[in-house]
Every structure is written in structure tokens, then in C-alpha cells.
Write a structure and sequence with these properties.
Number of domains: 3
Radius of gyration: 27 Å
CATH topology of the largest domain: FAD/NAD(P)-binding domain
Bound molecules: flavin-adenine dinucleotide
Number of strands: 25
Shape: elongated
Strand content: 25-35%
Number of helices: 9
Distance between the termini: 45 Å
Length: 395
């Protein structure tokens, strides 16, 4: 089976940034992407909040991210990940064209548009119902259309759609938008935009193509009809985790829970970007997550090699685990090393400050400590306060 160091699933802003950081840390990086590298920004008309770039189209930004990852020689593969097998402590990523064993995996699969769930939505998708203004907006030249939703995406995309449509009606289930102030001001001052508040879509109807919406006012219960030829649905997002099937801890609908190092509940599996349970889902936060995940994955891989080579392979070895930023502990480490010089005892010095995960794994509660390994098994460990205690433990 193919074996790789770091496998990144998804080449959106999070995955591409992970690839850049992973390659720059010297890792062998494989990026798996089922669509076009760049992710959601490929369907974004303009980006005005990527620091240092006042204005760019989503496609331009996606292209520059991809080129940046290619510059550092990250390997791309055009495949869909179907599942991940984490049995027996291994990480096997199963794709539609073969399996890959990884030392660490970063899940950067982002999120997809939520469906409304209204009758007619499935039937008319591609025949008037759309989830992508950049992809489909131009089909509605001089027509009256509706946008469903009240967040930033809905409000911004409604403004974008006025380039084509003669009228855009935003239908929102609440009485105010959740978008930012600049976006709301732009929408409300646009003469082609109307808003229907406190209203949900009961049905999308028509013959071959969308012809009207049946609407319900959530306060009064009144049912009305709105004649439109297009409906753009921006009703929130769902995480792209169907291939994970509860492998890692997640909340509401599958958003992956991580700590600040982007570690999931499974060792060696990281998550970055929109797929995480997080406060703000944007390009800049996805990129930040991607950088953190790659650095944490790199530390994890070197820890694994460290443990394997230094502690698990020798017949008999003792590790002194200490904190390199604690002066007395660093001094004790060198005293122990000197005391054992010329004896048969095999000693490894391990910086527990930089390798916190190893400290956790060894069950060490307080540094410094000595841990003895026999044929790869931890036989005992003990907190050490002095050189005498250390010599007694080892002899
Ligand atoms: C219309 C719209 C407008 C937006 N406007 C802005 C904006 O102005 N500013 C801003 O900062 N953000 C904006 N965003 C949000 C921004 O695009 C996202 O926050 C960002 O793209 C998240 O990056 P990501 O890498 O986490 O995920 P994504 O961009 O979703 O990328 C995930 C990638 O993973 C791939 N993938 C998924 N499943 C699999 C699988 N099983 N196998 C292989 N590959 C897989 C997908 O194909 C995709 O390429 C907008 C989003 C949309 C939709």
C-alpha cells in the first residue's frame, strides 16, 4: 500500500495552506481533492477581507493559493476520499482510486450549502434553483429572482445578482439580517433589492422550470405567492464529513471538534477550516487553521519517530524527561548524563516541554521524571528530584 507522511483531504484555503506549511517543514505532503483546488472561493465573486489584498475575485485568490502550494512542490491528486480506516492504530485513507496509509491526516474538507428542504427544491435544482450566484447568476438576465437567507453570503450574493436580474427579493425568516454592516448597507441601498421579512418558503413550484414561490409569514401564518424564475438558496452550511462516519468527536450536524492545535479526538488526525466547530468561517481563519494543523502534524510525526527510534526499538533504555526551559531541570539532565558516562546504562534525554504529548503518553504527572523501557514496553516511571534519586532509579 502507498505510504505517505502527511495526507491532507481537501484543497481549499485550509488544505492549501497546510500543504505550504507542511512542505516547508520538510514533510512529504499529498493533497487529495475531488473538485477544483481553491474550494468554496471558486464560487465567490469577490473577496475584500483577505489581509493585504484589497480586492480579488475568488478564482484569482484560489489560483494564487494553488500556485503557492505547487511552488513548494506539494503533490496534488484528483480523487474523492470515501472513508478513513483508523483500526489497529493505523490511518488508512480510502479513495475512489486506491488506499493510502498516512502518518498524519488533516481533514480540510470544508462545508457545503444546506438545502432548504422545501417541496420542489430537489426537482428544480438546475432548473431555476441554485446554490451558487457566480456559477448561475448570468442565466437570469433581466428576470425577477429570489434569494433565501439572511447571513453575509445571502446579502452579498443578492447584491451580486443585481448585475443580471431586474429584481432580487431576499426572503428571510427573521426580522433582521445576520450579515455585517457594510454588506447590509450595500443591499438596502440597492434599488433592485426588496426584502420580505419573517417569511419561509413553503414550496418551489412551476412546470418545467421554476415559476413561483409559495411563501408563509411565520408571524401571521399568511400564505402568499411570489412569481420568480430563479431561487438562490443561502440557508447556511453543512460540514463535508459524510466519509468520516463519527470517527472523531463532533457537534451538531458533524462540525469537527478540535483543540487549539487542530487536534481531533483521534491522535494524528487533525482538522482545519470550515469543517471545524468554530466561531468564524472565512478564508483567513481557514488559512490560519491550516498553518496550525500542519505544524502540529509535523510535531506529531517527529514525536512518533522519536518514540519509535529512541524508546521502543532498543532492548533496554531509560529516558530522563525534563523541561528545557527550567534551568535546574536542564542542569540535572546534564548531571545525570555525566554520572552515567562510562557505565552500561543507556540514557535518552527527552525535552518534555517541546514534546508534551510524549509526557502525556508516558503518564508523567510532574517533570522531571525517569521512565524505563524494556523491549518497547514502559516498565516504570518516577518523578526525580535529585541526582541521588536518579542514580538509585537507574542502578
Ligand atoms: C458564496 C460564498 C462567498 C464567500 N465570501 C467570502 C468572503 O468574501 N471572504 C471570506 O473570507 N470568505 C468567504 N466565504 C467563505 C470561504 O470561502 C470559506 O470560509 C473557505 O473557503 C473555507 O475554506 P476550507 O479550506 O475550510 O474549505 P472549502 O473552501 O470548503 O474547501 C474544501 C475542499 O475540500 C474538498 N473536499 C470535500 N470533501 C472531499 C472528499 N471527500 N474528498 C476530496 N476532497 C474533498 C472540496 O472539494 C473543497 O475543494 C464565502 C463562501 C461562499 C460559499
Amino acid at each position: 500500500m502507498e505510504k505517505r507522511e502527511l495526507v491532507i483531504i481537501g484543497a481549499g484555503p485550509a488544505g492549501l495552506t497546510s500543504a505550504i506549511y507542511g512542505k516547508r517543514s520538510g514533510l512529504d505532503v499529498l493533497l487529495l481533492e475531488k473538485g477544483i483546488p481553491g474550494g468554496q472561493i471558486n464560487v465567490t465573486d469577490e473577496i475584500e477581507n483577505w489581509t493585504g489584498v484589497i480586492h480579488a475575485s475568488g478564482a484569482e485568490l484560489a489560483d494564487s493559493f494553488r500556485k503557492h502550494a505547487e511552488h513548494f512542490k506539494a503533490e496534488f491528486r484528483d480523487v474523492e476520499v470515501r472513508s478513513i480506516d483508523l483500526s489497529n492504530g493505523r490511518k488508512i485513507v480510502k479513495t475512489d482510486s486506491g488506499d493510502i496509509e498516512a502518518e498524519a491526516v488533516i481533514i480540510a474538507t470544508g462545508a457545503s450549502f444546506k438545502k432548504l428542504g422545501a417541496p420542489g427544491e430537489g426537482e428544480f435544482t438546475g432548473r431555476g434553483v441554485s446554490y451558487c450566484a457566480v456559477c448561475d447568476g448570468a442565466f437570469f438576465e433581466d428576470q425577477e429572482i429570489a434569494v433565501i437567507g439572511g447571513g453575509n453570503t445571502a446579502v452579498e450574493e443578492a447584491v451580486y445578482l443585481t448585475q443580471f436580474a431586474s429584481k432580487v427579493t431576499i426572503i428571510h425568516r427573521r426580522d433582521s439580517f445576520r450579515a455585517d454592516r457594510v454588506a447590509i448597507e450595500r443591499a438596502m441601498s440597492n434599488p433592485r433589492i426588496d426584502v420580505i421579512w419573517n417569511t419561509v418558503v413553503e414550496e418551489i413550484a412551476g412546470e418545467d422550470m421554476v415559476e413561483k414561490l409559495v411563501l408563509k409569514n411565520v408571524r401571521t401564518g399568511d400564505i402568499t405567492e411570489l412569481p420568480v424564475t430563479g431561487v438562490f438558496v443561502f440557508a447556511g452550511m453543512d460540514p463535508n464529513v459524510s466519509f468520516m462516519k463519527g470517527l472523531v468527536d463532533s457537534v451538531g450536524g458533524g462540525w469537527i471538534v478540535t483543540n487549539e492545535r487542530m487536534e481531533t479526538s483521534v491522535e494524528g488526525v487533525f482538522a482545519a477550516g470550515d469543517v471545524r466547530d468554530k466561531y468564524l468561517r472565512q478564508v483567513i481563519t481557514a488559512a490560519g487553521d491550516g498553518a496550525t494543523a500542519a505544524m502540529a502534524a509535523s510535531a506529531y510525526i517527529s514525536e512518533q519517530l522519536h518514540i519509535q527510534g529512541l524508546l521502543l526499538e532498543p532492548e533496554h533504555v531509560t529516558a530522563f524527561v525534563f523541561s528545557s526551559i527550567d534551568e535546574p531541570q536542564a542542569r540535572l539532565a546534564s548531571d545525570i548524563e555525566k554520572a552515567l558516562a562510562g557505565t552500561d546504562a543507556r540514557l535518552v534525554l527527552l525535552d518534555g516541554y517541546r514534546n508534551k504529548r510524549i509526557v502525556e503518553k508516558l503518564g508523567i504527572k510532574e517533570l522531571p521524571a525517569l521512565a524505563e523501557f524494556k523491549k518497547g514496553d514502559l516498565s516504570r516511571q518516577q518523578h526525580i528530584a535529585s541526582l541521588d534519586e536518579a542514580v538509585k532509579f537507574i542502578s
